[in-house]
Amino acid sequence: xxxxxxxxxxxxxxxxxxxxxxxxxxxxxxxxxxxxxxxxxxxxxxxxxxxxxxxxxxxxxxxxxxxxxxxxxxxxxxxxxxxxxxxxxxxxxxxxxxxxxxxxxxxxxxxxxxxxxxxxxxxxxxxxxxxxxxxxxxxxxxxxxxxxxxxxxxxxxxxxxxxxxxxxxxxxxxxxxxxxxxxxxxxxxxxxxxxxxxxxxxxxxxxxxxxxxxxxxxxxxxxxxxxxxxxxxxxxxxxxxxxxxxxxxxxxxxxxxxxxxxxxxxxxxxxxxxxxxxxxxxxxxxxxxxxxxxxxxxxxxxxxxxxxxx
Amino acid sequence: xxxxxxxxxxxxxxxxxxxxxxxxxxxxxxxxxxxxxxxxxxxxxxxxxxxxxxxxxxxxxxxxxxxxxxxxxxxxxxxxxxxxxxxxxxxxxxxxxxxxxxxxxxxxxxxxxxxxxxxxxxxxxxxxxxxxxxxxxxxxxxxxxxxxxxxxxxxxxxxxxxxxxxxxxxxxxxxxxxxxxxxxxxxxxxxxxxxxxxxxxxxxxxxxxxxxxxxxxxxxxxxxxxxxxxxxxxxxxxxxxxxxxxxxxxxxxxxxxxxxxxxxxxxxxxxxxxxxxxxxxxxxxxxxxxxxxxxxxxxxxxxxxxxx
Lengths: 310, 308
Prior knowledge:
The complex is a heterodimer of chains A (310) and B (308).
Chain A: H1 2-6, H2 12-17, E1 18-19, E2 22-23, H3 24-55, H4 62-80, H5 84-107, H6 115-137, E3 153-155, E4 160-162, H7 163-185, H8 187-197, H9 199-204, H10 209-231, H11 241-256, H12 261-281, H13 289-300
Antiparallel strand pairs in A: 1-2, 3-4
Helix pairs in contact in A: 3-7, 3-10, 3-11, 3-12, 4-5, 4-6, 4-10, 4-11, 5-10, 7-8, 11-12, 11-13
Chain B: H1 2-16, H2 23-43, H3 54-70, H4 75-97, H5 102-122, E1 132-133, E2 139-140, E3 144-145, H6 149-172, H7 174-184, H8 186-191, H9 196-222, E4 224-225, H10 232-245, H11 252-268, H12 276-290, H13 294-307
Antiparallel strand pairs in B: 1-4, 2-3
């Protein structure tokens, strides 16, 4: 595009595409990639924040569960002929059930120990899952094609918007938004928030706290599975996909603080956009920019942008 | 007195060990044992779980490797420089990390380590994916040629014993007592007037320097510094060694490192290599659920019950 502007036969579109020497096509393209990454960051950090609220633990297997979601979608299609749309519903449920079993039989026995143990436990689970899938499928990625209904794209004034990418952003916003609404505005959400504040008191009111805790864990991990299915057509399905994104999400969680559900979603999206912008203006720093952002937040506001604790 | 006899016996054992065990394997164990001892100083004695300790191991390795290749300085100076570099990064990272506690501390250290990982991946002096290969071992003080494995072994042993002694000294000093007080009851330590964050930071710097020393030594032994040493897997491995051996015990990390390195060596050859991460994951889960004191911790409990 930049070379085209030196040509004497410049079309109107090309003139519009380059303002102040900035290639708007490339910029909006990177912004879109940023928003998509941000959608995944938001879904994953939302899951982590929900689980942290009630259980006070960090699920190190969240990335592995995201990877598992993508693999389940791939396996469902290739072994059972279950298509994308069914997988989008069924896989998160399956992952949620696995998570419920993990909570019930592995996490709960050590619920009263130091929370670092549950971090190490879920780290072990992540290692096993990643090791298993590397062993079976190798470390190179598997392809998963975009569903027919979402193939193609739309031409916008400054960019070409592939339909599937638009779908990722819309559906993650809907899922994150409705999760936020349920937690902040409904009676079920009120139980959840009360359980976060004072589980003993809530148990005293006759509410089954252990059940709510288990279901919350299932839902939070199920979100990661959902993100995994959503990611399968855009990133290649590989055993490494979970661990790479999880460490970034950890930095995002430190930046946003886990005190607020809305904060977790917003920080996720925002960091995706920051990453996208960096990819455009200074690509060498695109892998590190979120970590650098975390350093700055730690220096200025150690509790995190939305953090409550001192 | 009894404990001194034990130490003397173990040192004597380490001195004669290379006559019946392959020295490179022993050196690998000693390097990881030092790394785990450094890590255990934080986790076991201050209660801080650093999930990014690989960055110090890797930094030590890269700095030593680069200097040995480019300037040809003698190995003792190479190790010293690697250790110093790791200490400097530890000082910066520690300042940032102690701002948060518990689970957040683990996440911050992991994220900072990943920052360094991506930096080393792109930096011109690390050799990227290939790493620094063919690092010369050089001659110790310009006299003793270290390309001979048994000479190298005694050099590594000396470094390990120094590091082990330093950790031991730190733990049993008044400074170490305050660290333990912070681990047991941080609010009380604050109310007694201790600036808890400064103590945590100091422990973090000592730990990262020793981890760097382990990395420098490891680079000399294998004549290689690579991205493997800064990867988060490595950070996970040192957690596993310490947990398995027994965190908060003096010998636990050494035993844990010995067991993990033995498993890795045994498995890396054949088909079993694929299972290494699965097995490490299983060990993690078993340790957390049923074996939290680790090998040395359980052994001490057993001794106390039967003979104590």
